Protein backbone atom coordinates (compact mmCIF):
# COMPACT_ATOMS: atom_id res chain seq x y z
CA UNK A 1 0.00 0.00 0.00
CA UNK A 2 1.19 3.51 -0.75
CA UNK A 3 -0.34 6.87 0.02
CA UNK A 4 0.63 10.44 0.79
CA UNK A 5 -0.56 13.23 3.04
CA UNK A 6 0.36 16.48 4.68
CA UNK A 7 1.51 14.88 7.91
CA UNK A 8 0.48 15.43 11.50
CA UNK A 9 2.11 16.42 14.74
CA UNK A 10 3.84 13.82 16.90
CA UNK A 11 1.02 11.66 18.21
CA UNK A 12 1.31 10.61 21.87
CA UNK A 13 -1.26 7.86 21.34
CA UNK A 14 0.92 5.95 18.89
CA UNK A 15 2.31 3.71 21.56
CA UNK A 16 -0.91 2.67 23.30
CA UNK A 17 -0.60 -0.96 22.38
CA UNK A 18 -0.99 -2.78 25.62
CA UNK A 19 0.51 -1.79 28.92
CA UNK A 20 -2.18 -3.43 30.98
CA UNK A 21 -2.35 -6.95 32.35
CA UNK A 22 -3.05 -9.65 29.80
CA UNK A 23 -2.43 -7.41 26.78
CA UNK A 24 0.04 -8.28 24.04
CA UNK A 25 3.66 -7.13 24.33
CA UNK A 26 4.85 -4.48 21.89
CA UNK A 27 6.09 -5.54 18.49
CA UNK A 28 9.84 -5.72 18.09
CA UNK A 29 10.60 -2.93 15.67
CA UNK A 30 13.81 -1.98 13.90
CA UNK A 31 14.56 0.82 11.53
CA UNK A 32 16.88 2.76 9.29
CA UNK A 33 17.16 6.49 8.89
CA UNK A 34 16.67 7.88 5.41
CA UNK A 35 18.05 11.19 4.21
CA UNK A 36 14.51 12.59 4.21
CA UNK A 37 12.55 10.15 6.31
CA UNK A 38 12.38 6.86 8.15
CA UNK A 39 12.11 3.17 7.30
CA UNK A 40 10.72 0.85 10.01
CA UNK A 41 10.39 -2.93 9.86
CA UNK A 42 8.53 -5.27 12.17
CA UNK A 43 8.15 -9.06 12.34
CA UNK A 44 6.13 -9.26 9.10
CA UNK A 45 5.93 -5.84 7.49
CA UNK A 46 7.92 -2.76 6.61
CA UNK A 47 6.82 0.86 6.36
CA UNK A 48 8.55 4.02 5.23
CA UNK A 49 7.70 7.72 5.29
CA UNK A 50 9.54 10.49 3.48
CA UNK A 51 9.23 14.26 3.22
CA UNK A 52 8.96 15.37 -0.41
CA UNK A 53 10.55 18.53 -1.76
CA UNK A 54 7.18 20.28 -1.76
CA UNK A 55 6.67 19.50 1.95
CA UNK A 56 4.25 16.58 1.76
CA UNK A 57 4.76 13.30 3.64
CA UNK A 58 4.52 10.20 1.46
CA UNK A 59 4.08 6.78 3.05
CA UNK A 60 4.38 3.23 1.75
CA UNK A 61 4.43 -0.25 3.27
CA UNK A 62 4.41 -3.91 2.36
CA UNK A 63 5.20 -7.45 3.54
CA UNK A 64 8.71 -8.05 4.79
CA UNK A 65 10.88 -10.85 3.39
CA UNK A 66 11.49 -13.37 6.16
CA UNK A 67 14.53 -15.67 6.03
CA UNK A 68 14.84 -16.63 9.71
CA UNK A 69 11.84 -18.92 10.16
CA UNK A 70 12.11 -22.35 11.73
CA UNK A 71 15.24 -23.93 13.10
CA UNK A 72 17.66 -21.65 11.25
CA UNK A 73 16.02 -18.63 12.84
CA UNK A 74 16.98 -19.87 16.30
CA UNK A 75 20.43 -21.28 15.53
CA UNK A 76 23.27 -19.24 17.06
CA UNK A 77 25.71 -17.69 14.56
CA UNK A 78 23.19 -18.27 11.74
CA UNK A 79 20.18 -16.33 13.02
CA UNK A 80 22.06 -13.03 13.18
CA UNK A 81 23.10 -12.83 9.51
CA UNK A 82 19.64 -14.03 8.45
CA UNK A 83 17.92 -11.24 10.36
CA UNK A 84 20.38 -8.69 9.05
CA UNK A 85 19.64 -9.98 5.56
CA UNK A 86 15.91 -9.45 6.21
CA UNK A 87 16.54 -5.85 7.24
CA UNK A 88 18.70 -5.15 4.17
CA UNK A 89 16.24 -6.89 1.81
CA UNK A 90 13.59 -4.36 2.83
CA UNK A 91 15.67 -1.41 1.59
CA UNK A 92 15.28 -1.90 -2.20
CA UNK A 93 11.60 -2.72 -1.71
CA UNK A 94 11.03 0.54 0.13
CA UNK A 95 13.07 2.53 -2.36
CA UNK A 96 11.06 1.13 -5.28
CA UNK A 97 7.66 1.57 -3.61
CA UNK A 98 8.45 5.02 -2.25
CA UNK A 99 10.37 6.95 -4.95
CA UNK A 100 10.50 10.07 -2.77
CA UNK A 101 12.74 8.27 -0.25
CA UNK A 102 16.46 9.01 -0.34
CA UNK A 103 18.83 6.36 0.99
CA UNK A 104 21.96 7.21 3.03
CA UNK A 105 24.22 6.12 0.17
CA UNK A 106 22.50 8.47 -2.28
CA UNK A 107 25.17 11.08 -1.72
CA UNK A 108 28.18 11.49 -4.04
CA UNK A 109 30.44 12.14 -1.05
CA UNK A 110 29.51 8.81 0.54
CA UNK A 111 30.11 6.94 -2.72
CA UNK A 112 33.52 8.60 -3.16
CA UNK A 113 34.53 7.75 0.41
CA UNK A 114 33.38 4.17 -0.13
CA UNK A 115 35.44 3.73 -3.30
CA UNK A 116 38.51 5.39 -1.79
CA UNK A 117 38.44 3.37 1.43
CA UNK A 118 38.00 0.14 -0.56
CA UNK A 119 40.99 1.02 -2.73
CA UNK A 120 43.15 2.02 0.23
CA UNK A 121 42.17 -1.11 2.18
CA UNK A 122 43.12 -3.30 -0.77
CA UNK A 123 46.45 -1.52 -1.15
CA UNK A 124 47.25 -1.88 2.55
CA UNK A 125 46.45 -5.59 2.44
CA UNK A 126 48.59 -6.15 -0.67
CA UNK A 127 51.50 -4.24 0.85
CA UNK A 128 51.13 -6.17 4.08
CA UNK A 129 51.37 -9.65 2.61
CA UNK A 130 54.98 -9.89 3.69
CA UNK A 131 54.20 -8.95 7.27
CA UNK A 132 55.17 -11.80 9.56
CA UNK A 133 54.97 -10.21 13.00
CA UNK A 134 51.72 -10.60 14.88
CA UNK A 135 51.79 -6.96 15.94
CA UNK A 136 52.22 -5.71 12.38
CA UNK A 137 49.38 -7.89 11.07
CA UNK A 138 47.08 -6.80 13.88
CA UNK A 139 47.81 -3.14 13.20
CA UNK A 140 47.20 -3.62 9.49
CA UNK A 141 43.85 -5.35 9.99
CA UNK A 142 42.84 -2.79 12.61
CA UNK A 143 43.45 0.05 10.16
CA UNK A 144 41.46 -1.78 7.47
CA UNK A 145 38.57 -2.38 9.89
CA UNK A 146 38.47 1.29 10.88
CA UNK A 147 38.53 2.34 7.22
CA UNK A 148 35.42 0.21 6.74
CA UNK A 149 33.50 2.51 9.11
CA UNK A 150 34.36 5.69 7.21
CA UNK A 151 31.53 5.54 4.61
CA UNK A 152 28.93 5.40 7.40
CA UNK A 153 30.72 8.23 9.19
CA UNK A 154 30.66 10.29 6.00
CA UNK A 155 26.92 9.67 5.57
CA UNK A 156 26.20 10.78 9.12
CA UNK A 157 27.85 14.13 8.51
CA UNK A 158 24.55 14.99 6.87
CA UNK A 159 22.62 16.71 9.67
CA UNK A 160 19.26 15.53 8.31
CA UNK A 161 20.35 11.89 8.24
CA UNK A 162 21.65 12.10 11.82
CA UNK A 163 18.40 13.81 12.87
CA UNK A 164 16.29 11.11 11.24
CA UNK A 165 18.44 8.56 13.08
CA UNK A 166 17.25 10.34 16.21
CA UNK A 167 13.68 10.21 14.87
CA UNK A 168 14.03 6.45 14.47
CA UNK A 169 15.01 6.02 18.11
CA UNK A 170 12.39 8.44 19.40
CA UNK A 171 9.51 6.92 17.43
CA UNK A 172 10.34 3.32 18.33
CA UNK A 173 11.24 4.25 21.91
CA UNK A 174 7.93 6.08 22.35
CA UNK A 175 6.01 3.07 21.07
CA UNK A 176 7.89 0.71 23.40
CA UNK A 177 7.26 3.00 26.38
CA UNK A 178 3.49 3.04 25.80
CA UNK A 179 2.01 6.38 24.76
CA UNK A 180 5.09 8.50 25.39
CA UNK A 181 5.23 11.48 23.05
CA UNK A 182 8.11 10.84 20.59
CA UNK A 183 9.35 14.38 21.20
CA UNK A 184 10.06 13.45 24.82
CA UNK A 185 11.69 10.08 24.10
CA UNK A 186 15.50 9.91 24.18
CA UNK A 187 17.38 10.03 20.89
CA UNK A 188 19.54 7.09 22.01
CA UNK A 189 18.27 3.50 21.93
CA UNK A 190 19.72 0.33 23.41
CA UNK A 191 19.18 -1.69 20.21
CA UNK A 192 20.92 0.77 17.91
CA UNK A 193 23.42 -0.68 15.46
CA UNK A 194 26.09 1.48 17.10
CA UNK A 195 26.30 -1.29 19.71
CA UNK A 196 27.66 -3.54 16.96
CA UNK A 197 30.57 -1.32 16.01
CA UNK A 198 33.18 -2.28 18.62
CA UNK A 199 32.36 -6.04 18.66
CA UNK A 200 32.43 -6.07 14.87
CA UNK A 201 35.75 -4.22 14.68
CA UNK A 202 37.37 -6.56 17.21
CA UNK A 203 35.99 -9.75 15.66
CA UNK A 204 36.80 -8.58 12.12
CA UNK A 205 40.44 -8.12 13.03
CA UNK A 206 40.53 -11.46 14.86
CA UNK A 207 38.81 -13.28 12.00
CA UNK A 208 41.22 -12.00 9.37
CA UNK A 209 44.23 -12.84 11.53
CA UNK A 210 42.95 -16.39 12.04
CA UNK A 211 42.38 -16.69 8.28
CA UNK A 212 45.99 -15.71 7.63
CA UNK A 213 47.13 -18.36 10.09
CA UNK A 214 45.08 -21.03 8.31
CA UNK A 215 45.89 -19.98 4.74
CA UNK A 216 49.29 -18.82 3.56
CA UNK A 217 47.78 -16.48 0.96
CA UNK A 218 44.06 -16.26 1.72
CA UNK A 219 41.93 -15.28 -1.25
CA UNK A 220 38.56 -13.50 -1.37
CA UNK A 221 36.51 -16.56 -0.37
CA UNK A 222 38.30 -17.37 2.94
CA UNK A 223 38.29 -13.68 3.83
CA UNK A 224 34.59 -13.43 3.02
CA UNK A 225 33.85 -16.46 5.20
CA UNK A 226 35.83 -14.85 8.02
CA UNK A 227 33.86 -11.64 7.50
CA UNK A 228 30.51 -13.42 7.76
CA UNK A 229 31.71 -15.26 10.87
CA UNK A 230 32.73 -11.92 12.40
CA UNK A 231 29.29 -10.46 11.72
CA UNK A 232 27.66 -13.57 13.24
CA UNK A 233 29.74 -13.29 16.38
CA UNK A 234 29.11 -9.55 16.71
CA UNK A 235 25.34 -10.06 16.42
CA UNK A 236 25.46 -12.74 19.12
CA UNK A 237 27.33 -10.34 21.42
CA UNK A 238 24.74 -7.66 20.58
CA UNK A 239 21.94 -10.09 21.54
CA UNK A 240 23.74 -11.12 24.73
CA UNK A 241 24.08 -7.49 25.79
CA UNK A 242 20.36 -6.99 25.22
CA UNK A 243 19.45 -10.08 27.25
CA UNK A 244 21.87 -9.20 30.07
CA UNK A 245 22.30 -5.42 30.07
CA UNK A 246 23.54 -5.46 33.66
CA UNK A 247 26.46 -7.78 32.93
CA UNK A 248 29.97 -6.41 32.53
CA UNK A 249 29.93 -7.12 28.81
CA UNK A 250 26.42 -5.74 28.40
CA UNK A 251 27.30 -2.49 30.18
CA UNK A 252 30.46 -2.10 28.09
CA UNK A 253 28.72 -2.67 24.76
CA UNK A 254 25.76 -0.43 25.59
CA UNK A 255 27.96 2.22 27.15
CA UNK A 256 30.14 2.61 24.08
CA UNK A 257 27.14 2.46 21.75
CA UNK A 258 25.28 5.09 23.79
CA UNK A 259 28.21 7.48 23.60
CA UNK A 260 28.54 6.97 19.83
CA UNK A 261 24.85 7.84 19.47
CA UNK A 262 24.96 10.75 21.91
CA UNK A 263 28.05 12.42 20.50
CA UNK A 264 28.09 11.51 16.85
CA UNK A 265 25.43 9.43 15.09
CA UNK A 266 22.19 11.13 16.21
CA UNK A 267 20.89 14.69 16.48
CA UNK A 268 17.77 16.11 18.03
CA UNK A 269 15.15 16.24 15.26
CA UNK A 270 12.85 19.12 14.42
CA UNK A 271 9.06 18.88 14.92
CA UNK A 272 8.70 18.51 11.15
CA UNK A 273 11.07 15.54 11.15
CA UNK A 274 9.18 13.98 14.06
CA UNK A 275 6.00 14.25 11.96
CA UNK A 276 7.62 11.98 9.41
CA UNK A 277 8.60 9.51 12.12
CA UNK A 278 5.08 9.46 13.50
CA UNK A 279 3.73 8.78 10.01
CA UNK A 280 6.12 5.85 9.55
CA UNK A 281 5.20 4.45 12.96
CA UNK A 282 1.47 4.69 12.31
CA UNK A 283 1.96 2.93 8.98
CA UNK A 284 4.03 0.04 10.38
CA UNK A 285 1.45 -0.56 13.10
CA UNK A 286 -1.32 -0.52 10.50
CA UNK A 287 0.58 -2.88 8.20
CA UNK A 288 1.45 -5.28 11.02
CA UNK A 289 -2.18 -5.35 12.21
CA UNK A 290 -3.32 -6.04 8.63
CA UNK A 291 -0.88 -8.95 8.33
CA UNK A 292 -1.63 -10.26 11.81
CA UNK A 293 1.85 -9.29 12.88
CA UNK A 294 1.15 -8.55 16.53
CA UNK A 295 2.48 -11.98 17.40
CA UNK A 296 6.24 -11.96 17.31
CA UNK A 297 7.93 -14.83 15.44
Concise account of the structure shown:
With 297 residues, the protein is of the alpha+beta class. It contains 9 helices and 5 strands, in the order βββββααααααααα. The protein has a domain at 1-104 and 274-292.
Report on this model:
With 297 residues, this protein is of the alpha+beta class. The protein has a domain at 1-104 and 274-292. Helices cover 53% and strands 9% of the residues. The protein contains nine helices and five strands. It has helices at 79-97, 108-127, 134-147, 150-155, 159-176, 197-214, 220-243, 248-265, 271-290, and strands at residues 2-5, 30-33, 37-41, 45-51, 57-63. The protein has a five-stranded antiparallel beta sheet with strand order 1-5-4-3-2, sandwiched between helices. α3 (134-147) crosses α6, α5 packs across α9 (271-290) and α6 runs antiparallel to α7 (220-243). It is globular, with a radius of gyration of 20 Å. The protein starts with a strand and ends in a 7-residue tail after the last helix. The relative contact order is 0.20. Mean pLDDT is 87; it is low at 1-22 and 293-297.
Amino acid sequence: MSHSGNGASADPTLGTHGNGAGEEPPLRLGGMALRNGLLIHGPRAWAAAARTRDGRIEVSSGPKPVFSRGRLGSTPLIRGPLRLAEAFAVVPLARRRLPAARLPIEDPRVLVVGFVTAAVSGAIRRQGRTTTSRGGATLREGVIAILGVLPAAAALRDRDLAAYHGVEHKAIGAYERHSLDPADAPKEHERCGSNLIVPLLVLSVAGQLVTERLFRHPGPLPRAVAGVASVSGAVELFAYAERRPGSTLGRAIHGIGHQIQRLFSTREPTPEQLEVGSAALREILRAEAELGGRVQP
